[in-house]
Design brief:
Layout (H helix, E strand, L loop, with lengths): L2 E7 L6 H11 L6 E7 L6 H11 L3 E5 L5 H10 L5 E5 L10 H9 L4 E5 L6 E3 L2 H18 L10 E5 H7 L10 H11 L4 E5 L1 E3 L2 H4 L4 H19 L1
Parallel strand pairs: 1-2, 1-4, 2-3, 5-8, 6-9
Antiparallel strand pairs: 4-7, 5-7
Helix pairs in contact: 5-9
């Protein structure tokens, strides 16, 4: 089966080459896997590094998405490919790549989507205490407001089969941080089978400087309420 893995990037010059090579190594035993660097209008050397990586390896591709937002970077890149499985992972590789084999196994067992979770079973998450508390509250509100069974909707490690992508992505309105939470809620309501797998996750220092947790959380909550209003 053909698999497309999107790596959304915004100003990732410090880690891009190293991390893409790690992903390549992790998927080398999975046939017909394409890694797509989706450049979300970076202002640093992300594009130059990405294009060099493309020239060096046929399993890497590059797309440029000018519209700001992680959701736009992922979904616009998905649209450019015909595949059986569509996924994305954060460029900082906060989710350990050891989660890849169980993710593909779950898809082969009949699940329509597989997502990494920091909140189930043997999952391990390393992050600053205040971020851990904020994340706990946000996840609680997501589950309470949107009535989802998923325990960790924001985790940046997700894979979906083609049928789910084709039916659900056109319905997704958010183009920034909440797109994947919206996807999961819509997929649940449509009857798709979603499996959470425990992951090892570590907050990366470089990433922390880019995302201000409190404004992001407020915007996230606002979007969640908008989704609830639209779906009710």
């Amino acid at each position: 089966m053909k698999t497309v893995i999107i790596i959304p990037c915004y100003n990732e010059e410090a880690v891009l080459e190293k991390n893409i090579k790690e992903v390549l190594e992790a998927v080398k035993n999975f046939l017909n896997t394409i890694i797509v660097i989706s450049d979300n209008n970076s202002k640093d050397s992300t594009a130059e590094i990405a294009k060099r990586l493309v020239n060096d390896n046929a399993s890497i591709e590059y797309v440029f998405v000018a519209e700001p937002g992680k959701g736009a970077a992922v979904m616009e890149a998905w649209k450019k490919y015909e595949a059986d499985i569509y996924g994305f992972m954060d460029a900082d590789l906060a989710t350990d790549l050891s989660a890849l084999p169980p993710a593909f196994s779950a898809l082969s067992e009949g699940y329509d989507g597989v997502i990494g979770s920091r909140r189930i079973g043997s999952a391990k998450a390393k992050r600053q205490l205040y971020r851990k508390f904020t994340s706990f509250i946000l996840n609680f509100l997501i589950r309470a407001i949107l009535k989802t069974k998923v325990k960790d909707t924001p985790c940046g490690f997700k894979f979906f089969k083609k049928d789910l992508i084709n039916k659900i992505v056109p319905q997704v309105k958010d183009r920034k941080w909440v797109f994947d939470t919206e996807m999961l809620v819509l997929a649940e309501r449509a009857g798709f089978k979603i499996k959470e797998i425990p992951v090892e996750w570590e907050e990366k220092g470089l990433r922390g400087s880019k995302v201000n947790i409190y404004p992001t959380s407020r915007e996230y909550l606002k979007k969640i309420l908008e989704i609830k209003h639209r779906l009710s």
